[in-house]
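Project outcomes to date are best conveyed with an example. Our students and postdoctoral researchers have been running inverse folding experiments weekly, and each run begins with a structure described purely in tokens. The record below, which covers 156 residues, was selected by the lab manager from last quarter's runs and is presented without edits.
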């Protein structure tokens, strides 16, 4: 144990309302944010996209893919669960685990290879993977109660 850990002090003092920090973005701003994120992303990188149906997970994934350099149209992988795209850089995997009945089904979709690939990996409904999720950048999206056409975004 390091001297710091044994001091009894919190590892990183955070402002008390840090959990409430978020962006409120209209669709164009959310897409612009995603494209900028995609341009800045460097593989290997796993990004999780959490939020209820219609929160904008697929919209954001499409924007991240475009910024990363995917030229093909990115569709929702709800039925296929995994879609692989080529890009100007590494491959991109876009997963939607909504229809996964449990983590034991991960083997059927090539999970072990996807999460160690030199790739950008975007995962909708990451909760379904349970303890099998690798280290990742978490992004949460939610409807904005104050604006029907805005979404709240919380990253990290
Ligand atoms: N600010 C916004 N950001 C993202 N999507 C928005 C926004 N406002 C409205 N929408 C709409 O909400 C829907 C989000 O759908 P989608 O991205 O498929 O969500 P999810 O994958 O989370 O179910 C789309 O029809 C999109 O046009
Ligand atoms: Mg979706």
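After processing, the design step wrote out the following sequence:
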């Amino acid at each position: 144990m390091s001297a710091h850990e044994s001091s009894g002090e919190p590892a990183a003092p955070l402002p008390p309302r840090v959990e409430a920090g978020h962006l409120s973005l209209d669709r164009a701003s959310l897409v612009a944010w995603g494209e900028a994120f995609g341009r800045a992303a460097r593989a290997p990188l796993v990004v999780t996209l959490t939020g209820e149906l219609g929160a904008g997970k697929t919209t954001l994934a499409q924007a991240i893919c475009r910024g990363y350099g995917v030229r093909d149209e990115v569709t929702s992988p709800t039925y296929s669960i995994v879609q692989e795209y080529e890009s100007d850089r590494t491959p991109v995997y876009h997963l939607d685990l909504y229809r996964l009945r449990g983590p034991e089904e991960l083997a059927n979709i090539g999970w072990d290879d996807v999460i160690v690939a030199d790739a950008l990996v975007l995962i909708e409904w990451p909760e379904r993977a349970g303890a099998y999720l690798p280290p990742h950048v978490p992004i949460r999206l939610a409807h904005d109660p104050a604006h029907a056409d805005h979404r709240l975004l919380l990253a990290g």
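Residues 1-5 have pLDDT under 50 and may be disordered. The chain has four helices and seven strands. The training component of this project remains on track.
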